[in-house]
Design goal:
alpha/beta; Aminopeptidase; 2 domains; 6-stranded mixed sheet; elongated; binds zinc ion
Length: about 500
């Protein structure tokens, strides 16, 4: 398990500044290029600030763009052998501070660092440092030359007490995001359905109630569309329910697609890029990350997290194109393409969630369609919903965390594309609007009285290039936004 860098906050004062002249660690200073800040720096009248003042009055610094770094090796009259000066925007909002932190976290997380920041809201900067500092090296030999030291950074800032308090809460979202990224990074021969369930069972240590339903129980319940997906795999299908009871009353529900590996089944995928299908469980991993964050923060909210863990394999007893399967709801589905399996998993999960938990609202996450990547790339998740109020709340929350989504339509006209000659519906809707017809399929398993959001995260879950808050690989998109939404934008640890 990868742990985020530990961050301490110290108050900006004559005393903390005076220690910087003799500090041997790498020193990072983040400040905007403004008169006000130069005045503030000069007001300390110490060796360190005198030196700093020279550098930030230099041409090299004034030429820098926002979030660019001036590197000074062996700075004169200081004990450190490296001083980095990052230029902040003149007035930074949380998103900009997070990205500035990300620029530092990309390089500095493995070394003990002293960071001095001339800006309020340093907690968002810290969040960026921690998020971008993620790495997954479990399957590589450890590099000998690197010291094995606990990762730690000290941030000297304008209001250390307040930032520390706020960061304690943000850090839970970061830890949840790391858990999600770890799960998505694990290869499918390691993260089988059984191993996934056992990692979720470990959340009991944090106070989450965890229940695992096995194939026999799922069959007895009638979750046949979910079971059909995993029926040719050596890894048994499972449904895991995680409960965080921070409050009494009706729960909120978050639901995730957990296809541990997706070959496409009999409708086999082409070989090129198939290795990426280890990430087809990212929706379930986001649910797991949120549950961990809620428990760490002791959030006063009642949430159930439900994931369907299956593996979609070809084989002698695999589901075939043309098969007709009866869902838990009772509707029959004609399977025209066995690679459109995520919706079969979710159909039974959505119905089960409503029947068993009667949630106030439910949000599901799934790497559901390649079509959503055609429309939104890897920058925005596709959002589909039957409820404007919940959608608005989600967007407000996403605005705070900087995770992006774009609403897509649901419409009767698309729903018709799912009509089948033999069954109540088929599992694909034709060549066009594939992300929408997938969402229409899910909506057939959502009661009109249940506020619901479907997030198609096929693009954002695993961007092709490193982002400002994650190295290349899984992003953990959604954990922080849903965590923030469930906390109603509040910080219970404050
Ligand atoms: Zn598939």
């Amino acid at each position: 398990m990868n742990a985020p860098i530990e961050i301490n906050f110290d108050q900006l004062s004559a005393e903390t500044i005076s220690q910087l002249s003799s500090a041997t660690e790498q020193i990072i200073v983040c400040l905007p290029d403004t008169k006000q800040v130069r005045k503030k720096v000069n007001s300390f009248k110490q060796d360190f600030t005198q030196k700093l003042s020279e550098y930030i009055s230099s041409k090299s610094f004034s030429k820098l763009k926002e979030n660019q770094v001036l590197t000074i090796n062996f700075p004169e009259s200081l004990a450190t052998d490296r001083l980095l000066i990052l230029k902040l925007p003149a007035k930074s909002n949380p998103t900009q501070l997070r990205e500035a932190g990300g620029a530092i976290g990309a390089n500095a997380s493995e070394q003990l660092s002293k960071i001095l920041i001339f800006s309020s809201d340093a907690e968002y900067f810290a969040e960026g440092v921690a998020l971008r500092g993620y790495s997954f090296n479990r399957y590589k030999k450890p590099k000998k030359e690197k010291q094995v030291t606990p990762k730690q950074a000290d941030i000297i800032c304008l209001d250390a007490e307040l930032s520390a308090k706020k960061y304690r809460h943000l850090a839970c979202g970061v830890a949840g995001t790391f858990f999600t990224r770890d799960l998505v990074n694990e290869p499918a021969n390691s993260l089988t359905t059984t191993e996934f369930a056992s990692q979720l069972k470990d959340l009991e240590k944090h106070g989450v109630e965890v229940e695992v339903l096995e194939e026999q129980e799922l069959a007895a319940l009638g979750m046949n569309t979910l079971l059909a997906v995993g029926q040719a795999s050596q890894s048994p299908s499972k449904v895991v329910t995680m409960k965080w009871k921070g409050q009494k009353g009706k729960p909120y529900a978050i639901i995730g697609k957990g296809v541990c590996f997706d070959t496409g089944g009999i409708s086999l995928k082409p070989p090129k890029g198939m290795e990426k299908m280890t990430m087809d469980m990212a929706g379930a991993a986001v649910v797991a990350g949120v549950m961990k964050a809620l428990a760490m923060a002791q959030s006063p909210v009642h949430v159930v997290g439900i994931v369907g863990l299956v593996e979609n394999m070809p084989g002698g007893n695999a589901m075939r194109p043309g098969d007709i399967v009866k869902s838990l709801k009772g509707d029959t589905v004609e399977i025209l393409n066995t690679d459109a399996e995520g919706r079969l998993v979710l159909a039974d999960l959505l119905w089960h969630t409503q029947e068993t938990h009667n949630p106030q609202w439910m949000i599901n996450l799934a790497t559901l369609t390649g079509a959503i990547m055609v429309s939104l790339g890897d920058k925005y998740a596709g959002l589909f919903s039957n409820n404007d109020e919940l959608t608005q709340k989600f967007f407000i929350s996403a605005g705070h965390t900087g995770e992006k989504a774009w609403r897509q339509p649901l419409d009767e006209a698309f729903d018709k594309q799912l009509d089948s000659r033999l069954a109540d519906m088929k599992n694909i809707g034709g060549m066009y609007a594939g992300a929408i017809t997938a969402a229409q399929f899910l909506q057939r398993f959502v009661k009109s009285t249940t506020p619901w959001i479907h997030l198609d995260i096929a693009g954002v879950a695993f961007p092709e290039k490193p982002g400002s808050l994650a190295p290349v690989g899984p992003s953990g998109w959604g954990v922080r936004t849903i965590f923030n939404l469930l906390n109603d934008g509040k910080n219970p640890l404050e």
